[in-house]
């Protein structure tokens, strides 16, 4: 009897799921994938990491930036993040603090060590390059679900992994992109690749993620991110090192006062 | 030292300093820069004794940082040296910073010489008062002498509060002799006068509350003690020469700095009310900055700035900013070399005197930066404090090597 009941329940649930799946529009399906990816990455609390940014021009000449990154998850809002520059040396000690919000503009401050000055900066220039790289401010800022609308396109195999392909459209009119096409693997919901289309809807950049590793048995972080600009031939590679999650950072480590003592 | 030898020495030091001087691993980190500055004054000077033509100057500012107790305590030591080709007074040594810092969960305590910045506006730093200005280095009042203090910081959800206890005062130095960019009268800094009998040991304190409320960043401050800006009093020396003697008043100054950040706009306001020097007066500077970001997807940012200055003392003010308008523009290429341009003019609304400033900077390779600076005093009126600098237009190039 009990067995029967369970089997019946399972059948009903499966049917319901199938109906929902069939009924869901590509927009709903895209949003569901984005929400699921976000849900799986929720709860890491805080993160510290070191990163090397390798900028290459079209002749292959490189310049290197060394940075440290700290992120704090905020319940019910976007993450707080702090980037501290170590190299090139003339910007050593410069720090970039950002409070991202689920909706509305982010709050951003810059610390200028020569003057000891904390300066609130306009955050609307999100399409501009970050540190002369191929990453725009909007590419490195916290990716909140509400910052885009979505459309599920299709499933596709990418480098042997089954992926969902979704298209997302920035809500903010000041974004430099008309749309982004995102490959997310079905096994772990990790972003594998993003194609960025400019405002004229021409392919501008491609970002690929490599060397995903799992931390605390749950959270996936890529060791390398490679951004190639198809229109200029320039590229920027980010190499991440020393990821530490749940190391106990507090809001205190992300206040404006803390900028003055980051080194 | 002759120019050539001097330039060669500077160049040698600039180029030969060890590459990555970091002694990381033991918790000690050495960074900093050495720089070679050259200034060219195209006009002949106001006074015969002032030099004509070019001047070369070498500066070094290493930073020694040591942290311990798992990062909760640290020591920072930043000595500063300038060696100037022509001006013995501009050649000077200072300790910009030397302090111990303890960071606890709910407060921060530091003891030593520190540099503190308050404020939001670009063309004048009005509320910024903790440190003495080092005007030997530059006119822009952005170089500061290290201020001895005990600084206690509390951060709460209603804002951050800083308390500064300052037992000792540091006098302002003035350019003299051969130097350009100086007043055409002798300033006798050997015998400064103080309103307080304790002189430079007069106890000074300050407090500041700083908070962010939505789009507003707001700072409220109060300073009580020896004013950093002296009045220059004419006095006859024993030899009968007329000289100016710096007089330091005991002042109380309340300051406000406020910025609203919305879209591409930054709206800025600074205001002070100072008691104890010229009785009481009010001064303010306010304006806006708007940035057109990433123009046509090129990465170029163009900023336009306007600020208005007012000082209740009028032409009797110690600063040139009594009723002036600042117009400026900023170009940031956001390229790999961080190429930047800044141009601005401060124009006196009564006299039409204008101070023109153009700055450019660009990184070369990983460790070098080249900066150029053009300063010009146009249409200078005898009523304006900048009148004495009317022959001192200059063009400056500086190459810095960071390590």
Present the secondary structure layout.
The complex is a heterodimer of chains A (263) and B (403).
Chain A: H1 2-23, H2 26-40, E1 46-56, E2 62-72, E3 80-87, E4 95-99, E5 107-112, E6 117-121, H3 137-140, E7 148-158, E8 161-170, E9 177-185, E10 191-198, E11 203-215, E12 219-229, E13 235-245, H4 256-259
Antiparallel strand pairs in A: 1-2, 1-13, 2-3, 3-4, 4-5, 5-6, 7-8, 8-9, 9-10, 10-11, 11-12, 12-13
Chain B: H1 3-16, E1 28-41, E2 53-68, E3 73-84, E4 92-103, E5 108-114, E6 147-156, E7 159-166, E8 193-194, E9 204-213, E10 216-226, E11 231-236, E12 242-248, E13 250-262, E14 265-275, E15 280-292, E16 301-311, E17 323-332, E18 340-348, E19 354-364, E20 368-378, E21 394-402
Parallel strand pairs in B: 8-12
Antiparallel strand pairs in B: 1-2, 1-21, 2-3, 3-4, 4-5, 5-6, 6-7, 7-9, 9-10, 10-13, 11-12, 13-14, 14-15, 15-16, 16-17, 17-18, 18-19, 19-20, 20-21
Write the H/E string of chain A, N to C.
HHEEEEEEHEEEEEEEH
Distance between the termini of chain A: 67 Å
Q: Return the CATH architecture of chain B.
A: Beta Barrel
CATH architecture of chain A: Clam
Instruction: Briefly note the CATH topology name of chain B.
Output: Porin
Number of strands of chain A: 13
Which CATH top level class of chain A fits? Answer: Mainly Beta
Give the number of domains of chain B.
1
CATH class placement of chain B: Mainly Beta
General form of chain B: globular
- Write down the Rg of chain B: 22 Å
- Biggest sheet character of chain A: 13 strands, antiparallel
- Main sheet of chain B, how many strands, which sense, barrel? 18 strands, antiparallel, barrel
Average pLDDT metric of chain A: 91
Amount of helix of chain B: under 10%
Strand content of chain A: over 45%
Largest interface: pair, residues per side:
A-B, 37 and 46 residues
Name the beta content range of chain B: over 45%
Order the strands across the largest sheet of chain A as they lie in space: 6-5-4-3-2-1-13-12-11-10-9-8-7
State the low-pLDDT regions of chain B, or none: 18-23
* Uncertain residue segments of chain A: none
